[in-house]
TrEMBL record:
Protein name in UniProt: Short-chain dehydrogenase/reductase family protein
Signal peptide: none
Gene3D superfamilies hit by this protein: NAD(P)-binding Rossmann-like Domain
Keyword DNA damage: no
InterPro entries: NAD(P)-bd_dom_sf, SDR_fam
Keyword set, alphabetical order: Oxidoreductase
Molecular-function GO terms, alphabetical: oxidoreductase activity
Length: 317
């Protein structure tokens, strides 16, 4: 079977249609699926074909909005809501226990949710909020679901960002955050670098039994309409104009539909099977734009060990 070559303008619907056979009958769990966000773009495209689509959010009414929107478009879709706050170990443990009790297998786990890119905030577990929600929570959730993932030779997809290339891991403050050294953009870049390292380490440590991929979805405007801290942070550095519009001179933007495409390719493209740990952009594996720190296995191993210490559990296979 031949598959198309995708472009930066390929949409989530186009990629999902190309891999309809691979998606068919699969159970997919994707985090962070509010109707105005990137995750919803991927979720609604997969819902047409998936056997079961599990979507998550911190607030039940927001998840139900997404369920209703998907069902309105695809009435026969099998969609299940799951309450999950990745910034809370307690919430992660509760949600993982619920998923582990499901009778269905789990074929694909997509980590899409992310914290606000704003002022220094501590999570309820006393971690910097972006690092907590974007890396530590997903690490713990994956660890708790590992037996289910291994049983189905699952793929794990971690939505990173091209901003990881500017990231550095501040090892001294991961477990003991320091407000005086924090900057929201640096915190974001660090968390997204952690995403790339996690995908590499998860594939390696599982002996390839779990294939994990990280990716850059492209620059997508999900914050200007909502305002909020992420918008304020990006406006302060000129990514949004003083009038609140996307700055097309600074950034090449994608639509939400285009932004959701690479996630689906990472989850289902059979051409990348066996290439776990790779990084994707524009729905294909790339080696361009990868932070050199992400290519050092020692960094992935150290982050893994530090994260185990933070969550208080060993992640073994």
């Amino acid at each position: 079977m031949s598959f198309p070559t995708f472009t930066p303008r390929s949409t989530a619907d186009e990629v999902a249609a190309a891999f309809a056979e691979q998606i068919s009958g699969k159970t997919v769990l994707i985090t962070g699926t509010s109707v105005t966000g990137l995750g919803f773009s991927s979720a609604r495209a997969m819902a047409k074909y998936a056997g079961l689509l599990i979507i998550t959010g911190r607030r039940p009414h927001k998840i139900q909005e997404a369920v209703d929107a998907i069902k309105a478009e695809h009435p026969s879709a099998n969609v299940r809501p799951l309450t999950l706050d990745l910034g809370s170990f307690a919430s992660v443990r509760k949600a993982a226990a619920e998923v582990n009790a499901y009778p269905e297998p789990l074929h694909v786990l997509i980590h899409n949710a992310a914290a606000e890119m704003g002022p220094f905030v501590l999570s309820e577990d006393k971690l910097e909020s972006q690092f907590a929600s974007d890396h530590v929570g997903p690490f713990l959730f994956t660890k708790l679901l590992a037996p289910k993932l291994l049983a189905s030779s699952a793929r794990v997809v971690v939505v990173s960002s091209g901003a990881h290339a500017q990231g550095t891991i501040d090892w001294a403050t991961l477990a003991a955050p320091d407000a005086s050294t924090y900057h929201p953009l640096a915190g974001y870049a660090q968390a997204k670098l952690a995403n790339v390292l996690f995908a590499k380490a998860l594939t390696a440590r599982s002996g390839g039994r779990i294939q994990a991929f990280s990716l850059h979805p492209g620059a997508i405007d999900t914050s200007s309409a909502a305002g909020g801290e992420t918008f304020k942070t990006l406006q302060a550095v000129g990514i949004f104009t003083p009038e609140g519009k996307p700055n097309t001179e600074m950034v090449q933007w994608k639509t939400l539909a285009e932004g959701g495409a690479t996630t689906i390719a990472a989850a289902f493209d059979p051409r990348i099977e066996g290439k776990g740990g790779a990084y994707l952009e524009d729905s294909a594996i790339t080696e361009q734009g990868i932070n050199p720190a992400a290519l050092e296995p020692a960094n992935a191993d150290k982050l893994w060990t530090v994260t185990e210490e933070i969550v208080g559990e060993k992640f073994t296979f």
